Amino acid sequence: MIFSTLSVTGVISRYSSILTLATSLKVGTGLLLLLLMSACSKSKDNLAVQSIKIEIWSQGQALLCNEFSHQQQSWRIKQLSFFLSNIQLASDSDNFSPELLVNPWQTQTLALIQPELLSCDLVETSAAEAMQSHSILSFSSPVNLTKDTQLSFDLGVPFALNHKNPLGQPSPLNVPSMFWSWRSGHKFFRLDSQTKSQDWVFHLGSLGCTAASSMRSPQQECVQPNRLNFQLTKQQDGTKLILYLDRLLSGLSLQDGDSCLFQTHHKSCDLLLSNLSNNNVFVWH
Amino acid sequence: MALTPRAYLHTIKVRSLLLIASALLSCQPGQPPEYNWQLPTGFPKPLVPKSNPMSEAKVLLGKQLFFDKDLSFNQTTSCASCHQPAFAFAEPKMTPSGATGQVLRRNSQALVNVAYNNNLTWAHSGLTTLEQQILIPMFSEDPIELGITGHEKAVLKRFGQADYLLLFDNAFSGGAVSFEHIVQSLASYVRSLTSFGSAFDQYAYHNVDEALTDSAKRGMELFFSERFECFHCHGGFNFTQSSQHQQQRLDLRPFHNTGLYNTDDAGAYPISDRGLLEVTLIESDMGKFRAPSLRNVELTGPYMHDGSIANLADVIDFYGAGGRGPGTSNPFKSQFIQGFDLRKGDKDDLIAFLHSLTDPQFLQEHAVN
Q1: ipTM exceeding 0.90, yes/no
Q2: A165, A179, A264 member nearest B205 (Cβ)
Q3: Residues of chain A found within 8 Å of residue B225, distances taken between Cβ atoms
Q4: Environment class of B199 (CB within 10 Å of its CB; exposed 0-12, middle 13-18, buried 19+)
Q5: Which 3 state secondary structure label does DSSP give B198?
Q6: Structure pTM?
Q7: pLDDT digits (tens, 9 = 90+) for B148-157
Q8: B10 — contact with chain A (CB < 8 Å)?
Q9: Which helix (H) or strand (E) element contains residue B24?
């Protein structure tokens, strides 16, 4: 009985080996075909990408380090960070929200972008406060940008996530430098810049949020959410999203020290909002 | 309700199985029982170096060592001499003195929630773990604090008594009395000093509306306003941006020049203490010091790295003026220290808010009899 069981097992085992081999061959051939197809998909007709790179430009070129020129004066960026959410890609026939890769900089639905802008002064590259950076919008799986002609996103954090207790929130919704308070929510966009003798700061966020105190959340959307939506048409292959600093700061005389901290209304805020809405500050390349 | 013999037997079997299972679980190599931080619900755990995991036994040994003057070469000084529990482990004087009486140049910092600090001491970008930092008060020769250097054998010998041997044995399973183990235990004890029981915590994180007085609530609004800018440097759950925890490791802006000094109109701080610049040798790090946590700040005066501001009212005046004297125009000063106008009642309200950060539970728990 034992022998027969063994021999049956042996036959089954041999049979299953053949089956496995056949299956492997099939799978192998399938994989090969898939590989060939995916190799083809790298052609310009079928571009699948894992991420979109974010670059900061000023006066026609990408910033290589943390200085930019405005009205013949050199400014040093101390911090440049912003939230992107409600990200959608659209083709003529289709519209979908790509899922983002979850990491300390991203949840499934939003990302904190903090481009790498090292000090232009080589001596200072080891600065103790060199900030960590995140210059890409990473998807959880490859996204085919060939047919997509429109990229849209909100510059900011959705109301439902904007006013929560940061201790219960996943990263990056618990980053103190991008958070005012539970009532006011997050800074959607932050640019802190400096010359040798002056400072200029832009902190964008919601205004007119009603709650009992700074440590309580509003139950209704703020009077001025200031969560700007961008609808961008693809210019090239779609692998780059460019933020033009000079277009953002157009018409502003930073020398006046007229910073825009959205919690206390400054004149410069109106112009910055207008530039963000009308001046092609973001371009999808 | 006496059990039948069969049911009794069954109960014994189940209990035995449970015992064996729990014994097996507790015996798994590399899996010591997880340390209980006793944090209120929702508060994140700190990051702990893998090389020195937390344990109750290490904390217990560390506590014993922290208060023991035998750790100084001449048996005059303990860690607690300059980090006194009644003052949230700070010291109520401008700057402390070491075991020989040598005066140190920087104010004793409170030891509250330092487990969350990414940078330690007042201005050192390279000191990121307590294990590194503790070596300074133990072995530094200039200034001398505990003064162990040159007296290592004599100091270690004092911890060879039976009660200490038992504590070392429990903490390091048969581990010897060594400076490595002393450092690891002290670091574990200091990490265990967490404070989240203030009236502000009750209000903010436990939703108790009446936990704060009206004055403290008004002060809180000022603190978090763009007019006063306090939260830009004292932000986050720990009121300092040099904090991080298990769910937040991105945001670190630890060091700031607050405009205390400007000795040459070009931004210089007194030669006796130039802050982060001394470590990094980078010009723009002149006068930069780490923003300390404001938890229990009511008890941790005098304030600033050199203890040069006596009380909280004066600290508020200092920030209201955007610095002190020539320091207000220090070119390296943080862009968020621009000064502000105090309206009637503002200062009292701000102080009431700062007092609401005092944690009576913490003070009671660590009070020395």
Answers
A1: no
A2: A165
A3: 263-264
A4: buried
A5: coil
A6: 0.85
A7: 999 999 999 9
A8: no
A9: helix B5-27
